[in-house]
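Feature request, filed as a ticket because there's no other form

It would be nice if the structure record came with a short human-readable summary line next to the tokens. Right now we just get the raw output. Example of a typical job, pasted below so the devs can see what we mean:
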Amino acid sequence: MCRGDNKATLPREARLPINRCNLPAVVLGSLTFQQHPAELLLDGVAELHRNLFQRLEAAPAAQRGEVFGDYLTVHFRLERPEDMGFSGTRKGRAKANYIRMIRGWSFDADSREGAVLKGWVESRFGLTPRWHGQALRDPSGSAYRRYQEMRAQGLYGTNAIEAQLDLVYTFCQFELARRHPGARHVTLYRGVNRLADHEVLESRGKGQHVVLLNNLNSFTCSRERACEFGDYILAVDIPLTKIFFHCGLLPGVLQGEDEFLAIGGVVEVSLTTL
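Raw output as currently delivered:
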């Protein structure tokens, strides 16, 4: 593990002292973790939803997405919110499920839905958000307060949305392990106009930099697609255990751009021009 005074170690202000998974944030957010990834397990998810994963194990590969979607619909009563105590008239909030959160992120990562997803990462993995519409450096500042307000608004009136996201991540890991047995990383790309828009912890020459990513990030698996979003291309080997969602996981949820949602931390990236 990286030493506490190593610039490649996750800075103290970018992590919480506790989280809800099997590794602390200082470990899973470090450069060492990028180089030597390990399994990340959210507390209690596999045990509480053992029946789901037994069904997934027994289902043909082509039907696992449908099995997963059906389970969440029934378990969280997504089509019958009144069964869970909803008695209001604003049905829109009661229907704010995991699909809407992911689609909302794809339209605008700094939206209310984006705040919910970043807040979920903060809660489960202990990685604090670094950007939401503007830099989040001061927990007592107006920018962080705005992020917290948007997160609260996004959670209000929903049915255990963060528990739904727990299952999305766990299902994603279940699928990646079966689709890519033995794989540890995936190379992803991001188009940028300025490296200075990211938190650069160290520059190592020849286009190699150590960067602190936001706690949740959009990438693409297509370099050509990344070229459409900036004059420079960031290429980074992301541990598969940090993939929260990708466009091929559940058909129809994310469309286009070959998008991957990756949990952040400290990573080494390569910066190249078009």
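Something like this underneath would help us a lot:
The longest helix spans residues 161-179.
The mean pLDDT is 91.
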